[in-house]
Amino acid sequence: MFNLKPSKRKIFFYLDAHSQDFIPLQKEISHCLKFENSIILIDDFKVPENETFGYDTYDSVELSIENYDQLLNHDLYFPSYDAKKDFNTRGYVLIDISGSYSNLLSNEKNLLRYKKTD
């Protein structure tokens, strides 16, 4: 992934497979955010206000927007359904880097756009 040079190409980044010893997520996110016309999906991420989804914690650090606050500068979408109705009970977040997919993602009934609270 780090061999890719930032461009305006449409790229879908799927971030997963973290190890217990090292979490490259901060570095991965920083690199992906350079691709302005892309979407990032981070698996095993905490879904705000929806306790039905599981998420990962590494060295007491949750995969959550509280710990990856650089994501707050972009449009974030979380699953809006009950995880018990799905075969996968792990949370995730979709990041629309440029906001150019807002119409598409906002109209998806199983996604909810995240609104920051102060």
How would you characterize the largest beta sheet?
5 strands, mixed
Count of extended strands = 7
The number of domains is: 1
Query: Which ranges are low-confidence, i.e. pLDDT below 50, for 5 or more consecutive residues?
Result: none
Could you walk me through the main structural features you see in this protein, from its secondary elements to its overall organization?
- With 118 residues, the chain is of the alpha+beta class.
- The protein has one domain.
- 11% of the residues lie in helices and 22% in strands.
- It contains two helices and seven strands; from the N terminus they run βαβββββαβ.
- The strands form two sheets. A five-stranded mixed beta sheet has the order 1-2-6-5-7.
- Helix 1 links the parallel strand 1 (12-15) and strand 2 (39-43).
- The protein is globular, with a radius of gyration of 14 Å.
- The N and C termini lie far apart (34 Å).
- The model has no long low-confidence stretch (mean pLDDT 89).
Summarize the structure.
This protein is an alpha+beta fold. The chain has 2 helices and 7 strands, in the order βαβββββαβ.
Describe the secondary-structure layout.
Layout: E1 12-15, H1 25-32, E2 39-43, E3 57-58, E4 61-62, E5 75-79, E6 92-96, H2 102-106, E7 111-113
Parallel strand pairs: 1-2
Antiparallel strand pairs: 2-6, 3-4, 5-6, 5-7
